[in-house]
């Protein structure tokens, strides 16, 4: 099992944490949303929960709750900047389909 970050994603998370001034890493999870069923959620983490799994990649702790891990195993997080658009992209081998707008996926 692994969750990985590209160099650009790791740098962006490190920059966000530095600007925030605190935090041990970032939590990646899934939530029910959108037209395909599941959506990605990222948030800063100050303390991990007992049932969390932590991955260290490129100097960043990525924390996943037990429920989300089955949907996210093998995911690579990238940070892409194209013109005026920028944001995190999730390359998830478990996703069977995505909605047209790319905001949600199904497994």
CATH class: Mainly Beta
Radius of gyration: 14 Å
Class by SSE composition: alpha/beta
Q: Runs with pLDDT <50, length 5+?
A: none
Could you state the CATH homologous superfamily?
A: HesB-like domain
Tally the helices: 2
Number of domains: 1
Helix content: 10-25%
The topology string of helices and strands comes to EHEEEEHEEEE
**What's the architecture in CATH terms?**
Sandwich
- Strand order in the sheet with the most strands: 3-2-5-4
Report the sheet with the most strands, covering strand number, pairing sense and barrel closure.
4 strands, mixed
What coarse outline follows from CA principal-axis ratios? Answer: globular
Number of strands: 9
What fraction strand?
35-45%
> Would you tell me which CATH topology applies?
Hypothetical Protein Aq_1857, Chain: A
- Termini separation comes to 17 Å
Compute the average pLDDT.
Answer: 87
